[in-house]
Design brief:
Chain lengths: 449, 392
C-alpha cells in the first residue's frame, strides 16, 4: 500500500514524513533535483537538514527530477504518468507510478500583472528573482526594484540584498496597515509579527525604501529594462495622477500573489472553488480530503497561506492518506494538528483580506501592451475578439485571438485575461507538463489502463 | 425588439451557417446558445473540409457543395463585414491519404477510383516525397485530393455570426432554450428570460440534439462520439504541408464501434502548431482524457511523420461529435412537430458540411429550389426510426 505525494515543498515533505511515520510506504516526486520546493531552496551543495531529511527515510522513495504530466484513476487507486530527467531533455524515460492514496502538494507560482514594458528582458517574477538568488547565488540585476503585493516581497528583497544587488525599493501596491485592524485574524500567527520585524530591520540596514500604495506601472528600455515608472496608487489601484516618477533600474521583480497549480487536481475531477484572493483552489475537508475519495491536498493549492500553513496541512494530509489505506493513527495527534491547520487557515484569510489585487491595474495597460507574451497578443487584440468577434467564453476567446495558447498554456495570463474580459477561465490542462511525441509514443503498453 | 421568424438553437458552426443562410434569404433569426458560441464541438474541431474520406453518395455530394461554398461565402463576407472579421484561415492545402502497407493500398486505390467516377479529383501520386518531404519512407500508396481544405472553425463561426448580426438579427450567448410551445405548430420557445415567439425552431445542438429533440416533443437518435486531438509546439513552416492521414481513417469514420478507434490525421495550422488526431469513442458525455488514447495518437502520427519525434505535445483537448447510426447528417423539417427543424448529426464533418447544410435548410424553409437532394438527410428516413437513444 503506497501513498503517492506530488510536490516536495513544505507541504509535500511533511506529508511524506507523516505518512511514512505511521508505517505507509511513500513515493515522493518533484520536478526539482532537491527537496524543499521554492521555500527551502538552497544551493545544490547544501546539506539536507531538518524536514528535508525525509528523503532519506527508509519507507520514502524519493524521486527527484520527476515531471508528472498526467494522472489517472485506476481500479486500485491512482497512476501518475511521469518523465524522469532534467527539464526539456530529449528522451527522458516515461514511468508510471501506482499508489492507493494520493497527496497533491504542487504549490503555486507567482502571479504577474501585465504593464507596458513587462515583456522586456530584465522583468522577472519575484519567485524567479528569489530562486536565482537562493539557488544559484545570482542577482537578476545590480539595481533592482521589487513591486507587487503581499508579504512575499520582503524575503525576495532580502535574497536580492544577500547576493549584492542594490534594491531601489519595495513597492507594495496594497495598504497593509490594515493588518492592525484585523488582530482576530492574526491570533496564533504571532510568529509572523516577529518575521515582519526581522524584515523591517533587513530593509532598514540595506537602506531599502518600503512604500505602500505604490507600484511599477511601466518599464522602459530599448533591448532591456533601463528604467521604470513608479506611481502612487489610488485605493482601486488606478494611478494617482501626477505621481509618476522615473527610476533607473536594470531589473524588476514582480509578484502579485500566487496562482495554485491545479492541473492534476482538475484532471482527477477534484472540486475547485474561488478563494478570497480570487485564485482557484482545491476544496478540502478537515482532514485535507478532496472531493475525490483517496485524494488529499495540502499547501498552497488549497489556499495560499505560506510555508508554515503548508507544512501543517502536509502533516495532516499525510496522516489522512496513510489512514485511508489502513495505517492506524492516534486521534490525539490528529486533533492537535487539525487545530494548528485551522489557525494557519485564519492567517490565509488575513493575508487575502489585506492583499487583494484591485481592478485598477487594468488601467495601467495601453492598447499595445501584450497580455499574452507567448503568443504576443495585445490588449486591443483581446478586446476586439470580445467586441468585434463576439467571444462569449474563454475557449472561443483563445481560438479567436490565440491568447493563452502558447508554451505556458495560459499559466501566466489566464487569470489576467479572465479579469480583463469577465470570461471565467477553468485551467484545464490534461497534459500537465509538455511531453515529446516520441516519449509519449514510447510509454509502455499496459500503463494508462 | 422585433420577434424572430426562426430561433436557431446552438451557436456552433452548423447553427451559425443556418442563421447566415436564413438571414441571407431575408429571414429574421435569433441564435440562442446556452453557453458561448463555437465553444463546444466547433471549438474542439480541427477544421476539416474533406471530400477524400467520403464514399460516393449523398454525404460526398453535400461535402463537395460545401467545399465549393466555403471560399465563396468567406469572400462574400469580406464585403459585408470586412477582411479582418471574415478571415477564417481558409487554406486550400489539399489532402494526402497514405496507405502504409500493401493491405491498405488496394482499398485506398479502389476508393479513389470510385470517387473519380463520381467527379472527385483523386490523384494517385508516385512522388509522395515531393508533396510531403518529411513523410515516412514506408508508403505503399498515396492519393492526393486537391479539393480538401482547412479552416479555423472558431474564426469561421464568428465570421458567420458577425454577418448575422450585421443583417440585424441577434446572437444570444448564455441563453438556453428550455422548452418549445406549440399548438398545431411551434409558436414560441421558453428561455430563462421568458417566452420568445417564433415561427420555427432549428435544432443545431450537435451532440446534444437528441436531448433537444426530446425537449421539443420529438426524438432523434443522435449520440455523442468522443474525439481527442493533440496539439504540438509550433514547428517551422512547411514541415507538414497537407492534411495527411492514414488510409485506415476512412474505415474509422465509417465504423459504428463504441470502442476506441484511432487513426493518424496530421496537419499544421497557420500558427505553426501541428494537430494530431484522431480518435473516436462512444463513452457518453464522459470528459476525462485517457493516456492510452494520447499514446495511440502519438504512435500513429510518428508512423507517418518520424520527424515529429522530438516535438513536444503542449495540450490535448477532447470534444463530442454528433453521431447518427447511418453516419449521415439530419437536415430538414421534423414531420412529428410542425415548425421544428433539425440540422445536426454531422459527426466529425460539421465544419466542412456547414455551409451547404445551412443553405439547404434555408432553401427548404423558404420554398426555394434545393441545391442538393435533401431526401437522404430527411428526418423520417428508415435508418433513424425505431432506435432508442442509447446514451442519455
Amino acid at each position: 500500500m503506497t501513498v503517492l505525494v506530488v510536490g516536495a515543498g513544505p507541504a509535500g515533505i511533511h506529508a511524506a514524513s507523516s505518512a511514512a511515520g505511521v508505517g505507509a510506504d511513500v513515493v515522493l516526486v518533484d520536478s526539482a533535483s532537491r527537496p524543499g520546493g521554492q521555500y527551502h531552496r538552497q544551493p545544490s551543495d547544501a546539506p539536507r537538514t531538518g524536514a528535508l531529511a525525509v528523503v532519506d527515510h527508509p519507507r520514502v522513495k524519493w524521486m527527484p527530477e520527476t515531471w508528472v504530466w498526467a494522472v489517472e484513476r485506476t481500479d486500485q487507486g491512482f497512476r501518475l504518468h511521469a518523465q524522469v530527467g532534467p527539464a526539456d531533455a530529449p528522451g527522458r524515460p516515461c514511468i508510471a507510478l501506482d499508489g492507493e492514496a494520493l497527496v497533491l502538494a504542487m504549490g503555486a507560482y507567482d502571479r504577474v500583472l501585465p504593464f507596458p514594458g513587462w515583456d522586456l528582458p530584465g522583468v522577472y517574477t519575484a519567485g524567479a528573482a528569489q530562486a536565482m538568488a537562493k539557488g544559484q547565488r545570482v542577482a537578476v540585476g545590480r539595481n533592482v526594484v521589487v513591486s507587487g503585493t503581499g508579504p512575499f516581497l520582503l524575503p525576495v528583497a532580502e535574497s536580492l540584498l544577500g547576493v549584492g544587488a542594490r534594491v531601489r525599493g519595495v513597492l507594495e501596491a496594497g495598504s497593509p496597515v490594515r493588518w492592525a485592524l484585523q488582530p482576530w485574524l492574526l491570533r496564533g500567527s504571532l510568529g509572523k509579527i516577529g518575521e515582519l520585524a526581522h524584515y523591517a530591520k533587513v530593509l532598514s540596514t540595506g537602506k531599502v525604501p518600503y512604500r505602500t500604495r505604490s507600484a511599477v506601472v511601466a518599464a522602459h528600455g530599448a533591448d532591456r529594462v533601463e528604467s521604470v515608472t513608479v506611481a502612487r496608487l489610488n485605493h482601486d489601484w488606478t494611478v494617482a495622477s501626477g505621481s509618476e516618477q522615473q527610476v533607473e533600474v536594470d531589473a524588476v521583480a514582480v509578484g502579485y500573489g500566487f496562482t495554485p497549480q491545479l492541473e492534476l487536481a482538475i484532471a482527477l475531477g477534484c472540486r475547485i472553488q474561488r478563494a478570497l484572493d480570487d485564485s482557484d483552489v482545491v476544496v478540502v475537508g478537515r482532514d485535507q480530503a478532496t472531493s475525490v475519495p483517496g485524494v488529499f491536498a495540502a499547501g498552497e493549492i488549497t489556499a495560499v497561506a505560506g510555508a508554515d500553513a503548508a507544512a501543517a496541512e502536509g502533516v495532516l494530509a499525510g496522516l489522512s492518506a496513510a489512514q485511508s489505506i489502513g495505517s492506524s493513527i492516534v486521534d490525539k495527534q490528529v486533533s492537535l494538528i487539525r487545530r494548528k491547520v485551522l489557525r494557519k487557515r485564519d492567517f490565509a484569510r488575513a493575508l487575502a483580506a489585506v492583499h487583494p489585487v484591485r481592478s485598477g491595474w487594468q488601467s495601467w495597460l495601453v492598447d499595445t501592451t501584450l497580455v499574452c507574451r507567448c503568443e504576443e497578443v495585445s490588449l486591443s487584440a483581446v478586446r476586439s475578439a470580445v467586441v468585434e468577434r463576439g467571444a462569449a467564453g474563454m475557449r472561443a476567446l483563445k481560438l479567436l485571438c490565440r491568447v493563452g495558447l502558447g508554451p505556458c498554456q495560459g499559466r501566466i495570463c489566464g487569470r489576467n485575461v479572465a479579469e480583463l474580459t469577465g470570461l471565467p477561465d477553468i485551467p484545464k490542462r490534461p497534459i500537465a507538463s509538455p511531453i515529446r511525441l516520441g516519449d509519449l509514443a514510447s510509454e509502455p503498453d499496459g500503463s494508462g489502463g | 425588439m422585433a420577434y424572430p421568424d426562426v430561433v436557431v438553437v446552438g451557436g456552433g458552426v452548423v447553427g451559425a451557417a443556418c442563421a447566415e443562410a436564413l438571414t441571407r434569404h431575408g429571414v429574421r433569426v435569433r441564435v440562442c446558445d446556452r453557453g458561448a458560441p463555437a465553444a463546444a464541438t466547433t471549438g474542439s474541431g480541427e477544421g476539416n473540409l474533406l471530400v477524400s474520406d467520403k464514399e460516393p453518395g449523398p454525404e460526398l455530394n453535400l461535402a463537395r457543395a460545401s467545399c465549393r461554398r466555403w471560399p465563396r461565402l468567406l469572400a462574400e463576407l469580406v464585403d459585408e463585414i470586412g477582411p479582418s472579421l471574415a478571415d477564417a484561415e481558409w487554406e486550400p492545402k489539399g489532402g494526402l491519404v497514405v496507405a502504409t502497407d500493401e493491405t491498405a493500398a488496394a482499398p485506398l486505390l479502389a476508393l479513389a477510383e470510385r470517387q473519380r467516377v463520381a467527379g472527385v479529383e483523386a490523384v494517385v501520386t508516385t512522388d509522395v516525397r515531393g508533396l510531403e518531404p518529411h513523410l515516412a519512407p514506408s508508403v505503399a500508396a498515396a492519393v492526393h485530393y486537391p479539393e480538401d481544405a482547412q479552416l479555423q472553425p472558431v474564426l469561421a463561426t464568428s465570421a458567420l455570426l458577425a454577418a448575422v448580426r450585421r443583417r440585424g438579427s441577434e446572437v444570444c450567448a448564455g441563453v438556453e432554450v428550455l422548452g418549445v410551445h406549440r399548438g398545431s405548430r411551434v409558436t414560441s420557445v421558453r428561455t430563462k428570460n421568458g417566452d420568445l415567439p417564433c415561427g420555427a425552431v432549428v435544432n443545431a445542438c450537435g451532440p446534444w440534439s437528441g436531448r433537444f429533440a426530446e425537449i421539443a416533443g420529438s426524438s432523434l437518435p443522435v449520440e455523442p462520439r468522443r474525439g481527442l486531438v493533440l496539439v504540438t509546439a509550433p514547428l517551422p513552416p512547411q514541415t507538414v504541408r497537407h492534411k495527411v492521414y492514414d488510409a485506415d481513417y476512412v474505415g474509422t469514420v465509417a465504423s459504428g464501434s463504441a470502442d476506441l478507434v484511432t487513426s493518424a490525421v496530421v496537419e499544421s495550422t497557420r500558427s505553426g502548431t501541428v494537430l494530431v488526431g484522431s480518435s473516436r469513442q462512444r463513452v457518453g458525455f464522459h470528459e476525462s482524457i485517457e493516456v492510452r488514447v494520447l499514446r495511440a495518437l502519438a504512435r500513429k502520427a510518428l508512423a507517418l511523420f518520424p520527424v515529429l519525434r522530438g516535438v513536444p505535445a503542449m495540450r490535448a483537448y477532447g470534444g463530442f461529435r454528433p453521431y447518427t447510426p447511418d453516419h449521415l447528417p439530419v437536415i430538414g423539417a421534423d414531420p412529428a412537430v410542425p415548425g421544428l427543424w433539425h440540422a445536426t448529426g454531422h459527426e466529425g464533418a460539421g465544419i466542412g458540411l456547414a455551409p451547404a447544410t445551412g443553405q439547404l435548410v434555408a432553401e427548404l424553409m423558404t420554398g426555394a429550389e434545393p441545391h442538393v437532394d435533401p431526401a437522404p438527410f430527411r428526418v423520417d428516413r428508415p435508418a433513424l426510426q425505431g432506435r432508442a437513444l442509447e446514451c442519455a
